[in-house]
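Recap quiz, item 2
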Amino acid sequence: MHLEVAERLRRDGQRYTALRRAIVGELIAAPRPLTVRELLKSRRGLVQSSLYRNLAVLIAAGVVDRVAGMQEDTARYELAEFALGHHHHLVCMSCGDIADVALPKTLEHDLERGLRKVASSAGYALDHHRLDVIGRCRRCR
Amino acid sequence: MHLEVAERLRRDGQRYTALRRAIVGELIAAPRPLTVRELLKSRRGLVQSSLYRNLAVLIAAGVVDRVAGMQEDTARYELAEFALGHHHHLVCMSCGDIADVALPKTLEHDLERGLRKVASSAGYALDHHRLDVIGRCRRCR
DNA sequence: ATTTATGCAAATCGTTTGCAAACCT
DNA sequence: AGGTTTGCAAACGATTTGCATAAAT
């Protein structure tokens, strides 16, 4: 994975520094998208501004995706699709927790096809979509 | 529409003040979700804090929904589903513009069914979903 | 040697809150 | 009067930026 990431950064004219490697390592280890606060706690001595700057670089290089939580005041970050595959998010409306989910392939396919049509008939060129499933997690039921 | 809104506020123990009426009026007139900045410009003398407070009241009463834009740093507001019907958003990844769209009924229905299954098998109780279609609008093609 | 990344502190931006005056019933 | 809403200013929290130092090529 690190090799792939390094390659993507190189293609974008960016270095794969120790800090970036550490951040990517955390994201690889995490079972779900992480907030900046979580990332900061995971590594002592990690500085906010550097973290934000590196996340921006990683996003620009297509290595990381920024995803919105329930209350959109705190962003979360996860590895990009090339690493995690296409998926969506289950968001708990009570505690804000997030889990990754994938749709059945046929449904995802139908959806994709429908969206392309809907987008083009509105004059939009479809790039991608994001789908969040809002509900209550096991603990918050 | 204002009658319906008044009723919902009343049910929530809230008044339908002139300011709230004005805000709802703007949202009714708008062809798409509006930002706080847009709402502020639309009415001279409208104060930020009052606007935010009233939006909170309207959201709590189920009259308004808050929706996330592309770069989730600026929220947008629109009338709730009871007024606009269930729909999704086309978001321009270049200019950030937003348009409302609906999926074909059968697709929406299949999606709903699939999501319920996916959610429950992850231990979540489905509440609702949000689907954003990201692309480039006509002008940004 | 020159460019790029980092840490630290200060600045920004959207949003929220405290408080006193205005409003409604 | 008694509780609610409003305006204004200050407070907040997430994110960004300026600048001097450290690291990488």
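Chain B touches chain A at residues 66, 68, 72, 75, 90, 92-93, 99, 101-104, 107, 110-111, 114-115, 118-119, 122-138, 141 (CB under 8 Å).
Chain B has two domains: 1-85, 87-141.
End of item.
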